Amino acid sequence: xxxxxxxxxxxxxxxxxxxxxxxxxxxxxxxxxxxxxxxxxxxxxxxxxxxxxxxxxxxxxxxxxxxxxxxxxxxxxxxxxxxxxxxxxxxxxxxxxxxxxxxxxxxxxxxxxxxxxxxxxxxxxxxxxxxxxxxxxxxxxxxxxxxxxxxxxxxxxxxxxxxxxxxxxxxxxxxxxxxxxxxxxxxxxxxxxxxxxxxxxxxxxxxxxxxxxxxxxxxxxxxxxxxxxxxxxxxxxxxxxxxxxxxxxxxxxxxxxxxxxxxxxxxxxxxxxxxxxxx
Length: 279
Hints:
Residues 151-188 are annotated as: Disordered. The chain is mainly beta. The protein folds into 2 domains: 4-41 and 64-146, Protein HRI1, N-terminal domain (Lipocalin), CATH 2.40.128; 188-278, Protein HRI1, C-terminal domain (Lipocalin, Beta Barrel). The chain is built from 2 helices and 15 strands.
């Protein structure tokens, strides 16, 4: 599958009406690794405005977190619905989850239905625990796919530093051009993984086009970040940060010189590039 950016537009717990109390973004790689971060919306408009500009107003308490998890996904074609539309049965296997230190025990599955006349949106139906009641409840969610954007290459020494990143010799590559002879910019998908069983540490960072986000658990400590490219003038902006652990979002956003198997070192931890695709 192609790398995917998906934003949840609304959710409802049956029989309640639809609403969207969170900012929910899911980044899924071609290898079906994903990071899903759901941050509660701040009720104060003035605070929202300050938090969305620059990199100083984005540190939020964990009380503002609805859910954050990462893992791998799969889907199979299920029986058609009553109208004959194809329905997909999807499963998300949690590898990291801020709600539990036993993410493998989480059951996360749903059925995806097409929405007539809308190629960008889909309807998900399923059952999961309603955090407000603690009971298994039927739910419906509307998801919108977002097209990935190619980001201009950074000049040498510009932008976020990839702390502890291994230096790799760049190989000469043939530059693709469009029919008018102009250079075509490629979209980037990258995944970095940390797994240190002795330290009870697991982390995943996924970058798709103009978005990058990651989660990390070390024993009982958890951290997350979300970044977005907002244009050439401002570049990458960190939209959300929780916790104090290091996440290699910088290297994921600036992949020059990296390849599958490259490592990003920080302290005793080594993050490995397990996917790097241009599309």
